[in-house]
Write a structure and sequence with these properties.
It is a single chain. The chain is about 10% helix and about 45% strand. It is mainly beta. The chain contains two helices and 27 strands. The relative contact order is 0.10.
């Protein structure tokens, strides 16, 4: 056998070996490869269309989108339909919240809905009917009487309010607020531009045409004509403009916050080095009411309002603040109840760097 034949034979053997090795490698790879999907730490928990909420509250949030560059959700409030399904929005308002902050308190996913299926409307009105059975027996005769009461479902109307005036700093008993279509659970509010609302207490819906209640305007409230707003539980309301007059307090008091705590006993954390209060600010105090407004104040700066605030109980509030640039120094924490009472922690929060 000459050298040329040996060379060709060697090349053939080498080629066969490469083919066999390649085949074995491919078969091994195909047999052992599996796909496993794992969650990435810090990735968003919710997607567009998810309806989620804090389990302690009835209302929920609709996720409109997620921004990876800011790690934040765009969201809107959403409400259940009359049949319990979700849902609808009452306006087109939206806001943005940091993902970690939102997911910390809103832990319950209810469902997912296409955004195109969510409408914006006023709450629907639902007629509710209750029946009372009264049975009486005389001798051998039994008589059963059925009394049926149907709640009004139309929009409430306003006729008059008695009295239609009162003094700031004094409880004003309204003996006759008359109109039509008042529902049990209705609220009554006084409103005036650039002023906090005055929500009535002791509201008694005596009938679909008569309400009694009490207004207690703060002594430092703006005097003048105020609007009366009556809102039924189904969301329908009526506004009668400039019908109620509030006069200047007969005994004005100094409402300037003192250096001591007034109803706020502590906050946590008490300072920040950045532009966010990580995990939210927990405020502990007394007599916090539904609808309470919280803000950070400093005499030389505009007020800082929370992007989200949750009333946990009458003694605990959790608020989430975004601190603007140039906000160094001590800030007072001020919580204003709907009845006008104010809780203040003077210079209680320190922005140390931002």
């Amino acid at each position: 056998m000459n050298k040329k034949t040996l060379l060709v034979s060697g090349l053939v053997l080498l080629l066969i070996s490469c083919v066999l090795i390649t085949g074995c490698t491919n078969n091994s790879s195909t047999t052992n490869t599996t796909t496993q999907i794992t969650s990435v730490p810090g990735s968003p928990k919710y997607v567009t269309g998810d309806i989620v909420r804090n389990p302690a509250y009835e209302t929920a949030w609709l996720i409109l989108g997620y921004n990876s560059s800011t790690d934040s959700y765009k969201r809107a409030q959403i409400y259940p339909n009359a049949d319990g399904s979700w849902g609808y929005r009452t306006n087109s308002n939206t806001d943005t919240v940091t993902r970690t902050v939102f997911e910390k308190t809103n832990t319950e996913k209810i469902t997912n809905k296409p955004l195109s299926s969510i409408v914006i409307r006023r709450p629907t009105t639902v007629a509710t009917t209750s029946a009372t059975l009264t049975t009486s027996t005389t001798g051998n005769t039994t008589t059963t009487t059925t009394t049926t009461t149907t709640s009004p479902t139309g929009k409430p109307t306003f006729k008059k309010i008695v009295p239609d005036e009162g003094n700031a700093g004094t409880a004003i008993s309204v003996t006759a607020l008359t109109g039509t279509n008042f529902q049990t659970g209705a609220t009554v509010t006084l409103m005036k531009a650039d002023n906090q609302n005055i929500t009535a207490t002791n509201v008694n819906v005596q009938s679909s045409t008569l309400i009694t209640c009490t207004f207690t305007p703060p002594s430092n409230i703006t005097a003048g004509a105020w609007d009366v707003v009556i809102t039924n539980p189904d969301g329908q309301y009526v506004i009668y403009a400039a019908i109620f007059s509030i006069h200047t307090s007969l005994n004005p008091v100094d409402t300037t916050p003192s250096s001591d705590s007034q109803g706020i006993t502590s906050i946590s954390p008490t300072f920040t080095y950045g532009n966010d209060v990580t995990g939210g600010m927990t405020i502990i105090g007394t007599n916090f009411l539904t609808g309470i407004n919280v803000k950070l104040t400093k005499s030389t700066k505009p007020d800082i309002l929370p992007r989200d605030c949750q009333l946990e109980s009458s003694t605990k509030i959790i608020c989430f603040f975004t601190i603007p640039k140039g906000s160094l120094g001590k800030w007072s924490v001020v919580a204003t109840n709907t009845d006008g009472s104010v809780r203040t922690l003077q210079d209680g929060f320190d922005v140390r760097f931002n």
